[in-house]
Specification:
2 domains; two-stranded antiparallel ribbon; 7 strands; about 150 residues; 5-stranded antiparallel β-sheet; alpha+beta; 5 helices; about 40% helix; elongated; single chain; about 15% strand
């Protein structure tokens, strides 16, 4: 990720969405929320799970010991970015590339599922079933991001 794209607006650190009950951080894709990151936040709207970083001053981070999730942000094609963020284009392209890959795997699943009954060789049928299963596992990894609708 090109770190020069950050326009230092601070919006990403002022609007961090969490699910405390399930310990999920949605800010940079769906990740497990760790205690180090949680300790840096204060609630903006706890009912809706919106938090902000206590180290943000004048739109700049003052934390000298930033956790890796901050240093690498945005690292996920599913990061929640503010409208003003200059990373939006790059993240959009990464997201679309993943969607394209998933669509291609779905096409192959449909194709192999359609031809499997026309094949008499059980070994070949088993091979196709293994491929279908592997493809479905990859597709399911993105289920939380809507892969069933891609």
């Amino acid at each position: 990720m090109n770190k020069d794209l950050c326009n230092q607006c601070g919006a990403c650190c002022q609007n961090i969405r969490l699910d405390l009950e399930n310990r999920i951080l949605y800010w940079d894709g769906k990740k497990t929320l760790d205690d180090e990151f949680l300790s840096m936040l204060y609630p903006i709207n706890a009912v809706d799970g919106i938090y902000a970083c206590k180290f943000l001053k004048n739109n700049l981070c003052t934390n000298l010991n930033k956790p890796e999730v901050c240093c690498m942000y945005p690292s996920s094609p599913f990061a929640e970015l503010p409208d003003s963020c200059d990373y939006r284009g790059e993240i959009f392209i990464l997201n679309e590339n993943i969607k394209h890959r998933i669509r291609k795997l779905k096409e192959e699943v449909i194709h192999y599922s359609a031809i499997i009954s026309t094949i008499s060789d059980k070994r070949e049928q088993n091979q196709l079933n293994k491929i279908i299963s592997a493809h479905k596992k990859i597709i399911d990894k993105y289920k939380d991001y809507g892969s069933e609708n891609w």
